Amino acid sequence: MCATFSWGVRGNMTEALSMTVEGTLILSTIAVARQFYFPRRTVLSRSDSPPPPPVVVPVEAPIPTTTLTTMAYPSVRMLLTERQFSHEMREGTVAYVLVGLESPTTSVEIPAAVRPLISEFDDLTPDELHDQLPPLRDIQHCIDLVPGASLPHLPHYRMSPREHEELRRQVFELLQKGHVRESLSPCVVPALLVPKKDGTWRMCVDSRAINKITVKYQFLIPRLDDMLDMLSGAKIFSKIDLRSGYHQIRIRPGDEWKTAFKTREGLYEWLIMPFGLSNAPSTFMRLMTQVLRPLMRTCVVVYFDDILIYSLDPDLHLTHLRQVLQILREHRLIINFKKCTFLTSSLTFLGYIVSSEGIKVDPEKIHAIESWPTPRNFTEARGFHGLALFYRRFIRNFSTHIAPITDCFRKGQFVWTAEAEQAFLLMKEKMSSAPVLSLPDFEKVFEVDCDASHVGIGAVLSQEGRPVAFYSEKLNDAKTRYSTYDLKFFVIVQALRHWRHYLIQREFVLNTDHEALRYLNS
């Protein structure tokens, strides 16, 4: 969303840049992936006198946040948020002259029917988290250490001056927001910076040492197949993404010292749940399940910070959307508006395209598979195998087709055979033409079609001629010696076991091409 603010412009600065200015220029910034978009040539100056020395910063929009550090006055820390930028412009000793190129901005397309609802709940869509701690809810992140374990106390990592300045800035920002505080903890791990795709840095904490001595707690992470099955019959969808979801959960009071990290300036400890702690995913999923439990399995599917809302028609969907937003407001959970999708007939969810017609492969994943170069080692071959394996439910006889590639893993050394290359090209072809899978309708009759060869077995689950899912399995050496009758019977047993949750206590049609199996019960 857009934040607009302005300052008076000094004539001597505009003359130096040969710019014609009438009145006050407006700076509109849109924070996207920690970047600022400048819509036109912009000059900024503080309005008090005497004017401070100008600093000319020629940039191209969008400008990574690191640009200001490199090109601006070296004694001034990098400016990221609107609040920090505004403070420096009013209180700082340096005036910034930013010469930006026009850049198109992106915004979330909001259907007309949803706009009144979004306006009503606009308090849930701030540009960033509030400068205060989230509420202390029933679910907090707990860190219980193994009794008798030695506490880690590790030195900070060495960094370049530029990296250190960036780390110092990010820690200072967290201190301002109240998300961390100075610490005297005896348990300390180092902080580090990880580069992001846009050229900026993300601060992380190397929590491996503390995770080793943390008691692991388990919470059920929902199965992807089960979540997709819930969408059967849905026609309208919305998706809500939480903003920095982990940072909206408090550390259990008394456990903060166990999250301490070290920089060159000193020790700090988290008051909110950071990334990297071993039980963090379970804590977050517990919170989301508790908060949205009244709507789950009726109109909501939750997977960590992704909330998928599904309905049979638009009017009912608006009611469901209001209920979700009301619950988020009651629990003071902030959403990331730019990553939300509202009132649509199809959307991307967990690597699939979900629509009223069913589910299909994400085109981006298909492109990744099609452009995958021929593997040259185990790592590359396993990478391709893993990506293809994620979509195995879309490919009939998947295990049989990919068997030559999996055979490369069993040999003492990596040998990419002609058969593996042929399978590699075949999998690309199969993925590019993968069908749309129908979501199961438990009011209709299921059909199971089975087939087998001496390489692998396969089956298709369908309804009214439309595939719901494919199943396949590669045979080991012992099973390849089964007789034809045993092999055809084996695939039936495996298919019924695999889809037991669909077929148990239901009538279904079983199709096989082996005549003798017709008399199985005689």
Q: Calculate the mean pLDDT score and round it.
A: 78
Instruction: Assign an overall shape.
Output: globular
Q: How is the largest sheet built, in terms of strand order?
A: 9-14-13-10-11
The largest sheet is: 5 strands, mixed
Number of distinct beta strands:
24
CA radius of gyration: 29 Å
Derived from helix and strand composition plus strand pairing, the structural class reads alpha+beta
User: Which residues sit in consecutive blocks of at least 5 with pLDDT less than 50?
Assistant: 1-82, 93-106
Structure annotation, total helices: 15
Provide the β-strand percentage band.
15-25%
Report helical residue fraction. Answer: 25-40%
Oligomer: single chain
| End-to-end Cα distance | 70 Å
Keywords: Multifunctional enzyme
InterPro entries: DNA/RNA_pol_sf, Retrovirus_Pol_polyprotein, Rev_trsase/Diguanyl_cyclase, RT_dom, RT_RNaseH_2
Protein name: Reverse transcriptase domain-containing protein
Organism: Platanthera zijinensis
